[in-house]
Every structure is written in C-alpha cells, then in structure tokens.
User: What shape does this take?
Amino acid sequence: MALQTRVKITKTADLGEGIFELVFSCPVMAESARPGQFVNVYCDDASRMLPRPISICELPGDGQIRLVYRVVGAGTKELAGKHPGDGITVLGPLGNGYPFEGKRAVLLGGGVGIPPLLELEKQIGIPAAAFLGYRSDKTFLLDDFRKYGAVYVSSDDGSIGVKGTVITALERAVSDGFSLEGAVLYACGPGPMLKGVKAFTENNGLTAYISLEERMACGIGACLGCVCKTMEVNGHSGVKNARVCKDGPVFDAREVDLS
Amino acid sequence: MSQVNTEVSIAGVTLKNPVTVASGTFGSGQEFSAFVDLNRLGAVTTKGVAVEPWAGNPTPRVAETPSGMLNAIGLQNPGIDTFLKRDVPFLRKFDTKIIVNVCGHSEDEYVECVRRLADADVDLLEINISCPNVKAGGITFGTVPEVAQRITRRCREAARQPVIMKLSPNVTSIAEMAKAVEAGGADGISLINTLTGMKINVRTRTFALANKTGGLSGPAIHPVAVRMVYEAAHAVKIPIIGMGGIATAEDALEMILAGATCVSVGTANFRDPAASVRVADGIREYLEQTHTADIKDLIGAVK
Assistant: This one.
C-alpha cells in the first residue's frame, strides 16, 4: 500500500556525470516495494508543484530505499543538494514492477534506466547477465551489478566496452555464443533503446518486459498525464492507451505501441 | 469545540462542506481513495466524460511551470457506458455528492451525454464548455456568449439534475459569459478552467507539450481566479463553484469571500493527495477560530 510521508535521508552520494544517489529510511514502504516500482519525490520548494518520479534502485535492507537518479532540472538539483539527516517527502511504492517468470533473466539498462535493474537482479534469483549502456567510460553502479552476475558494458562513444547500445552488445554476445534460450529480457532505458528491445524480441521470438518513462503529474493513475499507446484497447481507459504510472511502468513489450 | 455549520447548497443539493475537487485532477476518486477519505469531501467532481471513449492527445501531456503546470490531456475518457457501470457505483459507496463533468465535440454530443446521465444516481452535472485542449468542442463553446447560452439551454432541457456550466477564463468579459449561461437557465457556474499557455524547452528547442499549448493551472493562476469569481458573483444570482490554484484553506476562503459558494481543489492534489481534505479541515478551523457560526455568512462577504 502506497503512502505519502516525510522520511529521513540516511545517505547521499555523487556518482559523477550528473548521477546522484539518495538513500532514505521508510520500513513500511520498503517492505512492500518491488523491483521496477518507483517513488514520487516532492520538492520542498512549493513553487515546484509536481512530484519527481524516481525508480527504486535497491532495497538494501533495514527499511532503506536507495534511489539513483540524474539531475535534469531545478527539482532534481534541489534533491542533489540534500544531506544525510535531511527530510524529504515521498510517496510510494508506485507502479507495478517487473514480473518474475522463473526463467533466466537478461537485463538491459541504458543510462539512467540502469538503476531499477539492480534490485531486480538481486531478487530474480536465476543466474543472469546484465547489459549496461553508458554514454562514455564514466560509468555508475558497475561494481554493484558485478556482485550478482555477468556484466556486458557498452558505451555510445566506445570509450568502454562495445561501441554502441545495449542491443549492439547483446547481438555481439549472442554471436559470440551467449544463449538466449529460455531467457526473458528485462529492460529500462531511453525510448529509442526500448524500441530496439521490442524489435529484437519480436525478431527472436522472446518475451521482454520494458519499463517506460513519461512526464507524470499525479503518479497514481488519476490524471492521465503519462499514458503510452497500447496495441489493444485497455480495460481501464477504454481506448488504446495505458497509464505508465499505474498500469506500468513495466509492460510486456508486445502490448505497447512504441511507433 | 464550538459548533459551526459548513454546509452549503448548490442548486438545492446540500454539500456537507464547501470543498470538492477540480475535474480532471482526481479521476473518479478511485485512485485517490487510497490517500483521502472521500466521505470527508462535500462532493467529488469526476473527470470529463463523453458519449464515446476519447483517446486524448499525444504525450508529453504535462509540464511543470513556476507554481503551476500546463496540461493538454485532451479529455481522454472511457465513455459514458464504462463511467456509469464502473465509476458511479464506486462513488456511491461514499457519503459525498457526485458532480459529473460532461464534455462533447458538438452540441448534440453534450446533450446526448446529459441525457444518458438522466437516470444515473448522480447529484449535479458540470458542463465543460471550456477545455482548451480539444480541437472541436470544449472551449469553442465557452467563449461566445450566444453559443454558451444556447448549449446551456439545450443541456438544461435534457437534464434531470441541476446543470452547472464550467466557464473559461480565456474571454474578455467573464461577467458577460456568466450572464449568458444564467440566461440559458444554468443552475450554477464553475470557474475558472485553465488559462491557455505554452512552454518551450530551450535546450531541445521543442514545445514542452506535444499539443504545443496547454491549460495553465496551480497557485500561479489563483489571483486571476479570485478576480473572475468576484466579477461573476456580481453579475449573476446563481451559485458559483470557485476554482483555480487553491492549495490551502486560506486560498479557498479568499474565493468564498469573493463570492464562491463552494470551491474545488485541483492541481494541489498532485503535490499532496490529501490536499482537498486539508482544505476542508482548515476552513472548519478558521470558522471556529474566528467565531463564525456559518460558512454561508462568508459567501461574497467582501464587496
């Protein structure tokens, strides 16, 4: 059950390249949170009305929730200025999270889409590989992922790993013998990457669960600000639209229209 | 605690307190009911519903602005059939009044939707002739007095419930619009809908909203709304539901003192899902602290 509450920050860190980490304590929220869900973070500056939806990176235990996010504007900048001991208002956990299918999980994360895959990899429990795509060799969370399984790195500029996207790295790995048999793909990243994942799974007869991002207002499924197009009529909306915040953010790639 | 009366009446419908929510910010209450006790609201105003399902606009549909936001949802809604089957029975479980916001692409569609609601167990209809985000219908009916008057009359004739006309602030004279719908037989008016705005991302050199323009809401527009409620209240005798940037009880009381009989909390719901109930509680506290026996004594009290 989601709740809105004021919580205490227990840790902050600058991970470089505009990526920041924030850990807060909220046992009741942590207890019900699942990988792939997100929390709304509210600015203390009331002139910034809308929450910032940030995915849950990790549930480190002890009632802690770890968020890893990119500073993109004034709101996330305010957040990055917080210190341990400071308070923040949060609401969560929100959204549906990644489903577990009991199959080999292949994780595909691009940029700030990487963080939510960490808790997934921890919990999914089946030896998995993580394909992580960065802009350059300024990486983040690499050591966290290496604790749990094989990691394949790619970068836009080729300064680390395979030059290209996570799809490039995945295709390279497959041609080098990496097996996708019986595997399910779990992805989070920018729109073009998710389109690539959807095309890849369709071409290879695979299932992929992808986490979508969209500008949100309420975050709880009421305002219809953050919809995505769906292939079929959605039961709630009555049209070919689903709410990213409530029906997602994770969707079976086959169900959404990313064109 | 002293006994204060927070009841107000809109077109013969009694609300236990003068607080509802602004259409479109609260769905049909289902999602918010996890955070707010709907029994503590005077009424729930539902998101606009049309005869057929509407898919709405492309995304991005929302953007933050200083002390407010722009939206261009485009009145996405599941259509009246789903609404009647799913949303009305849900809301009826609560001890609150139901105000149904009605939208259409044409006069006939508004009338048809009003007719479909005739047998529904709902209390008031709010006719949305002021949405800035749909190409046909919406605001095009809410900016020409003769058109607004005609559509009011047609809805009034088709409706079993009292009809409230929701007015646009994107007009030269709100008093003239208020008079037009009163002449058309409106039982009340609600204002303001959003102000048409635009935001451009200078980094990407694109519009923040796919629709290019959107409706501005939030505390940024509150003074405009107070002024328009005041002007409308002095132009007509029918009751007014005041809205536009209400986030606190003080904001709501301003609107009531300007002439609103009740108020709607809108964009503030996105920052605090319980904002509406906090406003209702704050109004009660104000009445108690100022030894005001009846909220009705405050309506339009500042001349």
